[in-house]
Amino acid sequence: PGVQDMACDTFLKISQKCKGQFVLQQQGEANPFIVDLLRNLPSIVSDLQPHQIQTFYEACGHMIREQTNQQQREELLMQLMEPPNASWRNIMNSANGDVSTLQKQDTIKEIGKILRTNVRVCSAIGHPFVSQLGKFYLDMLNVYKTYSEYISHAVQSEGEVVTQHANIRAMRGVKVEALKLIEVFVSKSEDPKMVAEKIVAMLYDTVLSDYQRSVPAARNPEVLKLFAAIVNRLRGEMSAGLPRIFDAVFDSTLSMITTNFTDFPEHRLYFFKLLKSVNMYCFQALFSIPAAAQKKVIDSIVWAFKHTERNISETGLDILEKLLSNVQQNQGFAQGFYSTYFLSLLQDVLYVLTDRLHKSGFKMHCTILKHMFTIVETNQIQAPLYPNNYQAQPGNANSAFLREYVANMIGNAFPNVGKSVVAEFVNGLFDTSKDLVAFKTHLRDFLIRLKEFSADGDDNKKLYTEETEAEMKNKLMQR
């Protein structure tokens, strides 16, 4: 097996490097190499293990991709996929007579192998794989639905512990491979409109409904990963479907990941990647959903950047920074957003800034705070941030109120800091003449003066991470 593994891996590397040569007829050859290869395919792979066959198929996929004639490329792909397609047809014919055959261990295992082979070929061929996907896409979704229903029924009968049983895990494995295949195809696709209408539209009832109905232990995090990839690739084409996606995954996922900071780590990671993608590419759609859903979006972003796991907190900060930038550029709903969320977001960002558990996010804290204080000081926020009983003075009332608000917040949080120090700090926050470097220095100097931070000693090096990395980079460049 070791020699076979090396041979298959080497064949894959050769196909990736020289792929174009295999679809051309070389001197002295009766046919291009790929034609002879596919003609003898059954005998070539007869002694290989399943994972080796999948590597071989991926190598062939790289070759076929180089065929520029669409008809010939489709014929080559059809020849390559005929063995797994024949096996698939046999399984579907049996299932049409008796759907319970899909529950057999050997059948589940074979379906998994077929889907993994398709994933490898799709990753190599890219968008032209659409001709192969169209042959079994509906059947694949039906298998997904059948296994979903079986798993749900088993959970209702025997409880969540059944999700750890071998046959249930195998069925969930098939579902994961189906999701992975769709994700790979969408990521490689070149026709967003077709993919949105023909591929993604069919996922709502099958995949999203199953995710929403399932018990937490049976929800596949790959669903969130798939829809993040879909939004990344299709962008504006997904705006219309966003309310349906949110309806299916938002509350159901948040109930799983906000109970504590440790359960369901994959769901947590992919959920915020999905949110990041939506904020990046379907921002307008975020404000077409109901106000209650909007608030949940904002609350989830806050929950993310307060998370103690670095990759989650940094993703939350990235989302917030892009959200604030998008809001600033969309004046149609900017003032309503500021009126509803600005103060609470500012308070939460200041909280993590002065919380020693989140020092790694210092650079992004500074970027976000500079943006927030600048738009107030430059009077870009017209909606009043202050309560109705506040005695607003002529001029920039929001700036005057916010100076008092922040000073009181800092004073209450750190009673050992003198009022003059707090006043100096607050004035510096509103100083628009400071560039980001100066603003960062101002924040860092204040943090180090706090007793809570000064007690950390060497741990405050995290506040200088950016400067340290730049210094090391300069030293490397000078060598």
Overall radius of gyration:
28 Å
User: Rough shape?
Assistant: elongated
Oligomer classification: single chain
User: In terms of structural class, how would the helical and strand content be classed?
Assistant: mainly alpha
Largest sheet: none
The parts where pLDDT drops under 50 for at least 5 residues are: none
* N→C terminal distance: 46 Å
Mean pLDDT: 91
Strand content: under 5%
Number of β-strand runs: 0
**What is the count of helical runs?**
23
Helix and strand string, N-terminal first? Answer: HHHHHHHHHHHHHHHHHHHHHHH
Helix content: over 70%
Describe this structure in words.
The protein is elongated. It has 23 helices and no strands. 73% of the residues lie in helices and 0% in strands. The two termini are 46 Å apart. α17 crosses α18. With 479 residues, it is an all-alpha fold.
